[in-house]
Amino acid sequence: MSEFIQYTLQGLAAGGFYALSALGLAVIFGVLGVVNFSHGACYMLGAVISAVLLAELDLGFWPALLIVPVVMFCFGVLMERLLVRWLLALDPLYNFLLTFGLTLVLVEAVKMRYGVSGLPYEVPAGLGGQVTLGSVSLSTYAIFACVFSVVVCVAVGLLITRTRIGMIVRAATEAPERTRALGINVGRWVTPVFGFGIALAGLAGVLAAPTRAITAEMGSNFIIILFAVVVIGGLGSILGAVVAGFLVGLVEAYGIAYAPAYAQIVIFVMMALVVLVRPSGLFGREEIA
Amino acid sequence: MRSRKIHGSLAIAASASLALAACGGAGGPQSGGSSGLSDGKVVIGLLNDQSGVYKDVSGPNSGVAIQMAIDDYKAKYGDKAVAKTIELVQADHQNKADIANSKAQEMYDRQKADVILDVPNSAAALAVATQAANKKKLYINISAGTTALTGAKCNKYTFHWAYNTGVLARGTAGAITKGGGTTWNIVYPDYAFGQDMNKSFTAQVQAAGGTVGQSIASPFPSDNFATFLTKAGEGNPKVVGSMHAGGDLINFVKQFNQSPLKGKVTLAVGLMFITDIHSLGLDQFAGTQFTDAWYWNFDAQNRAWADRFKAKTNVRPSFANAANYSAAMNYLEAVQAAGTDNADKIVAQLEGKKINDVFLRNGEVRKADHAVVHDVYLAKVKSSASEDWDYEEILKTIPAAEAYGPANPACKLG
């Protein structure tokens, strides 16, 4: 039984991290209707920038947690202004291809500059070691990452559902013409929302840095899991991304525990089942499907 | 019918004139008095991963090492050199067997490569071995791990210079088990290399009197090992063995260090390159034991070569870099001794040759299976470095015979 609890806790810890990582993807899709394939590359950039901050400027994990999202926000704003914006009026496939191409460029650029073996990073002081309760124990850092992720997810959820900015953004996505008619400049909100989504990807990257390999390719496989998360949760749904993040974390942990070689397949089997039963995902709006 | 005849006679005429040109020309390949070189030159092909996960281990820098061998050969023999013109051609196989296969054909046929070196990635390595056998051209593999190159898939023209998974297992599993680490759990990535490593390690742990409680397959690639580590700790083993490579290995070690296993069990790593330690940092790997085929700071001879290498690349060499140098140098020495680059004559030169050079200590090109056996080292990652890249403490030298074991009976060289 204690083993089962152990697996469950590990699944939840991973799930919190998945939720935060997928959040930006959900926000950008929900507001702009853009399937941002470069989310994995932005996550990678977040981790790489943290490692560079540490190596070059001796700025550790805590400053990185503030600096990286700001840098990535600016990067997202540039990306939207220079590239994504021009394709918004076209079929969503165009932006999907654009962001896919951008991913290749970013990955290769990081490889050229920093090589392929990866960059070193430390666990922040005070978060090393484990917390042990009886026979169950969990890495202190994993607990921190999970709690931090949940706090960020709740904050973003509140921002979108409970504030005036959130209301405008939601109105702008659901009925852009009517929102405009009310005298609100819809276009003005598109850029910062995109930047915000990219900043969330960068934040997930910082959170990954102490516990995962920081390489140019680190986002390439991760993005696949994140797509599974947002598809299960319902494209564009923030609550969906959070619930599905935990679900995927748990299913993965149980998969590893009881059928290790199939741990990742299980996630996609679950995705296929969800899509079969509820094509718009657990919390998705019907019209998107 | 008529047109086929015309084409046929044209072809005969063309080949006849080619033959004439070859025999009659003053510098013709076979008749040239000065050398018996095909195309009048020696072409060395370097086929490896120039952009992917093995780029830092043995990418373009192995080209630098081979160029050093070419320069050394020219300096050593000067006017007496059989190979006066030596070309180095390089290609990126992107870790894909099909690309390796077509690039190898291109190198042998179009670029006239006399030998292909390196070829990391076992699937790619085996594809090139097949091409070498078909085209009867030389192939010296360096950085692939598979024992099949000198086992069931061996052939007359293929040599395996630096290491194989069996060596890693005998070295690491044997030494740690005999040193008291008798109970193991192994986590391995679920693809050919990982499965091969798992089998080799299990066999060697058992041969040394230990037991393997569980062998756990992890999907490849994987970045969340928390639950794998929980499983690996079940049954309280003394040793947890990770058979991962590249990014998976770094993920595994980082998360191992955050797990309750840290400090309680020994972490043994199946395959580790000095570039892995460099990228993750000493404190993450400190104390980890592994088998190294060569270490740059082992003695004065290695260090002197490593200094020359660093002057050109600004990094210290991996064992694969040094092995590429050694293979290229010995290939050129064989050309010198045979007076030709004819593959069959080079094979005859190399077979059974005993070699001591910067990479090979007590080395021998084993005639039975073309494994180049040599002393390897049980290394431990230091906890602090006194200079850049000073990462390894050599615990012991594992003699060639112990490291390689007897020749694989599955290999039938014909």
Written account of the structure:
The complex is a heterodimer of chains A (289) and B (414). With 289 residues, chain A is mostly helical. Chain A has one domain (2-117, 134-288): ABC transporter involved in vitamin B12 uptake, BtuC (Orthogonal Bundle). Chain A has helices at 2-32, 39-57, 61-87, 92-114, 140-162, 164-174, 176-181, 186-208, 218-233, 238-258, 263-277, and strands at 130-133, 136-139. The longest helix of chain A has 31 residues, at 2-32. Chain B folds into 2 domains: 38-163 and 297-374, Response regulator (Rossmann fold); 166-292, Rossmann fold. Helix content of chain B is 43%, strand content 17%. In chain B, the strands form 4 sheets. Chain B has a 5-stranded parallel beta sheet, sandwiched between helices. The longest helix of chain B has 23 residues, at 2-24. Chain B is globular, with a radius of gyration of 23 Å. Chain B starts with a helix and ends in a 10-residue tail after the last helix. The A-B interface holds A 3, 6-7, 10-11, 13-14, 108, 111, 115-123, 128-130, 132, 137, 139-142, 210-213, 215, 217-218, 221-222, 252-253, 256-257, 260-265 and B 51-57, 190, 216-219, 221-224, 226-228, 230-231, 234, 246-248, 250-251, 254-255, 257-260, 275-276, 278-281, 283-284.
Which terms would index this structure?
heterodimer; A: 289 residues; mainly alpha; ABC transporter involved in vitamin B12 uptake, BtuC; two-stranded antiparallel sheet; B: 414 residues; alpha/beta; Rossmann fold; five-stranded parallel sheet; four-stranded parallel sheet; disordered N terminus
Q: Helix count of chain A, per DSSP?
A: 11
Output the CATH class name of the largest domain in chain B: Alpha Beta
Helical amount among residues of chain B, as a percent range?
A: 40-55%
CATH architecture of chain A: Orthogonal Bundle
Overall form of chain B: globular
Under CATH, the topology of the largest domain in chain B can be stated as: Rossmann fold
- How many structural domains are formed by the residues of chain B? 2
Per DSSP E runs of 2 or more residues, the count of β-strands of chain B stands at: 15
Q: Order of strands across the biggest sheet of chain B? A: 2-1-3-4-5
* N- and C-termini, Cα separation of chain A: 40 Å
Family (chain A): Belongs to the binding-protein-dependent transport system permease family. LivHM subfamily.
Protein name (chain A): ABC transporter permease
GO molecular function (chain A): transmembrane transporter activity
InterPro entries (chain A): ABC_transp_permease, BCAA_transport_permease
